[in-house]
Design goal:
3-stranded mixed β-sheet, alpha/beta, 7-stranded mixed β-sheet, binds pyridoxal-5'-phosphate
Length: 398
């Protein structure tokens, strides 16, 4: 390896020295609100398992039955011999749920975002992207030859400036891309204002609703439903790896021509294996539950509201909002250390939460991100709040 291994080892040592090494905790049970880990049992507040469907018995049964009916793997990309009727069923069900003409499955939402931009935008075009968009949007935008503009997170004045700049360059097509819900803050994108500006400047709107589909909005259809712009967002991307069962797979949902062209041209679609049959069947069941039953969404909302109100009562500093992502802030110079120590102290008592600090979030805005799930009971939520209170006094008295 001509000394490369030593160079890589030095890079790893540097990551470790900065305290940025990610250590993977190994789980010994299915994903759930209560999990076993190699270090003991834990109450889990950091999964994207918003509707609690990751280990839902009906979803598991649908996936297990599919192993018998549809087999284990596809061993093909979609366009050769990797499309079962259920792949199309799932695409149609997704489109129907989020309110678009059609949808197309990808191996992941990372791939959906990796594939779409270069297909629908060329060198004559422009993409205007929120600065806090997911890494997969950033990478997908890089793969396209379109001009790139970035606007400050949810800042509509800045979006207007960038739209003016793009129009000034005589761009043929302009696409505004935003996450529907931002994962570090739980804030929703201001979609009505974004759609207004898009209309004014003749731009399209793409929303990545990975942290929204299934549970945001009255019917769980996403951030566009919550903000009353279901008929004004042009293209949605999303994942089957979060609320909708948490298996794997992603999609682009939108107008027929967009979906049809992606089937012809999107590289992660054309050159990567089809989503596994059992995952397709389980995801179909998860989507059906998300569509037909309001109870998991209601439970999720109750849990988030209870957590927010008990934590506020206990004097914690929360970012406001309605999302089941609840950031508990530890501001200031000392915040990163306190957030990490509080999270560690909580884990020692079996409550699993994660602290985030710079460079993942801005300096001075360290936080513990709590993610509620419909699988949590009221007792679970109270246990989490009690653990926060105990850990805070432990850390602050040392
Ligand atoms: C999780 C996430 C993705 C990636 O989804 P996968 O299906 O796991 O690849 C993409 N975009 C956003 C906004 C996400 O939160």
């Amino acid at each position: 390896m001509y000394g490369v291994r030593e160079q890589l080892a030095a890079e790893l040592a540097d990551i470790e020295a900065q305290g940025l090494t990610k250590h993977e905790r190994q789980i010994t049970t299915p994903q759930s609100s209560h999990i076993g880990t190699t270090q003991g049992e834990a109450l889990n507040f950091c999964a994207n398992n918003y509707l609690g469907l990751a280990n839902n018995p009906d979803v598991v049964t649908a996936a297990r039955d599919a192993l018998d009916e549809w087999g284990f793997g596809m061993a093909s990309v979609r366009f050769i011999c990797g499309t079962q009727t259920q792949h199309r069923d799932l695409e149609k069900a997704i489109a129907d749920f989020v309110g678009t003409q059609d949808a197309i499955l990808f191996p992941s939402c990372f791939d959906a975002n990796g594939g779409i931009f270069e297909v629908i935008l060329g060198p004559e075009d422009a993409i205007i992207s929120d600065e806090l968009n997911h890494a997969s949007i950033i990478d997908g935008v890089r793969l396209s030859k379109a001009d790139r503009y970035r606007y400050k997170n949810r800042d509509m004045d800045d979006l207007r400036s960038q739209l003016q700049a793009a129009r000034g360059q005589d761009s043929r097509r302009i696409l505004i891309a935003t996450d529907g819900a931002f994962s570090m803050d739980g804030y929703l994108a201001p979609l009505p204002e974004i759609c207004d500006l898009a209309e004014e400047f003749g731009a399209m709107v793409l929303v990545d609703d990975s942290h929204a589909t299934g549970f945001i909005g009255e019917g769980g259809r996403g951030s566009h439903e919550a903000r009353g712009v279901m008929d004004r967002v042009d293209i949605l991307t999303g994942t089957l790896g979060k609320a909708l069962g948490g298996g794997s797979g992603g999609y682009v949902a939108g107008p027929q021509e967009v979906v049809d062209l992606l089937r012809q041209r999107a590289r992660p679609y054309l050159f990567s294996n089809a989503v596994a049959p059992s995952v397709v069947a389980g995801s179909l069941k998860a989507l059906e539950i998300a569509r037909d039953s309001d109870e998991p969404r209601a439970q999720l909302r109750r849990n988030a509201e209870l957590f927010r109100s008990l934590m506020t009562e206990a004097g914690f500093d929360l970012l406001p909002g309605e999302h089941p992502i609840v950031p508990v802030m530890f501001r200031g110079e000392d915040g990163a250390r306190r957030a990490t120590q509080v999270a560690d102290a909580m884990l020692a008592t079996g409550v699993y939460v994660i602290a985030f600090s710079f460079p993942v979030v801005p300096k001075g805005q360290a936080r513990i991100r709590v993610q509620l799930s419909a699988a949590h009971s009221e007792d679970d939520v109270r246990t989490c709040v009690d653990a926060f209170v105990a850990a805070r006094s432990e850390v602050d008295t040392v």
